[in-house]
Amino acid sequence: MTLRLSFEDLDRLDWECEKEDTRYLTHDFHPYSSKYIPQIPRNLIPAFSQEGDTILDCFVGSGTTLVETELLGRVGIGIDINPLACLISKVKSKPLDPHLLQRETSRLFEGIEAEISLIRGIPKITLYSEEVLRRLDASQDSQPNMERIKVWFQPNVTRELLTIKRHIDGIQSLDLRDFFLVGFSSILRSVSNAASGFGNLMVAKSPPPKNRVFEKFKSKVEDMIQRMSDFQKQASDARTEVAVGDSRRLALNDESIDMICTHPPYIAAVPYAEYQKLSLWWLGFEPHKLDSALIGGQRSRDDTVERFYRDMSLSFREMYRVLVSGRYCCVVIGNPLYRGRIWRLDEEMRKIGEDVGFRFLKQITRGKYKMTMGKMKAEHILIFRKS
Fold first, then answer.
1. Which of 33, 45, 154, 337 could form a disulfide with 375 if both were Cys (CB 3.0 to 4.6 A apart)?
2. Per-residue model confidence as pLDDT tens digits over 73-90
3. pLDDT per residue over 15-26, tens digit each?
4. What is the set of domains in the chain, with CATH numbers?
């Protein structure tokens, strides 16, 4: 394939994007730790693929690559071992009819609002009743453990969340149900007892009273509808697939992918299962099981680094296998601080890529921007080609 942009052209692009909006369209649906900015795949995809090509992100995270893939007229495949990541990615990248969405939203809000008005009229003392909570739990298997609820959410918050979740679960359309679940998940931390100002989750010593939970959910959904309407106009012919899967064992045919654009984890820099445990609990998943499956998970173990490199080698082998010969693989990585030292993942990923057969072509480093987490001061874009 002939490059659409030369490497000299790539060097002239603005990779810092300090003044650009990074939350446009559906990119602002749900918070997600350590995601890369959409301008990165927006620059890379046109440079290394053609319209109609199939683009793979095998660490799809919150779906940034997929949204840009659709806006650029490509076919997207997103895979992640994290079920919350797949839910967010699917909803962000699947255009929905805004009129259908608005009608379902009106029905949903009407039902929730009627029940919330009754809830707020109940004397406060009854909100602490386990029996009341159990009666509200229409689907015991899909709701979080009540002991966890009492720690992380105030009783009035719990009651409203259970009501909202039950009404969402009653929606027949899977696509619409998932849309509202993402809105629901996105507000959970803000209405919890989690201390603010920390990336990790800790219960605040004296959490302030939390209220107006339904209003927060309603405001979030209304914003999502507007963003989805704008996205649908630009990506109405979108073709995207999202699946829970393992990058170490991709369920894809040999040479079935035209380009790879992905953002792997950084050893143990971001404990996704810990950061996302409120959402995982409410959606029926166990964070500790996810942590044991994640590449770079279980970061307290002595063999964390060795496991990470081994697993990334397996992932690179799979990326090499599924990529069409002569096509390009772009990997975005940072160099994290872990156990008191900086780990040069840019150098290690380059070596792993070359070991499995890729030809390393170029490294682009962006690092003038301010990182929001950790000690990483730069981000590295590694460009490989399959011979």
1. 337
2. 999 999 999 999 999 999
3. 999 889 999 999
4. 7-95+236-386 (3.40.50.150), 98-232 (no CATH)
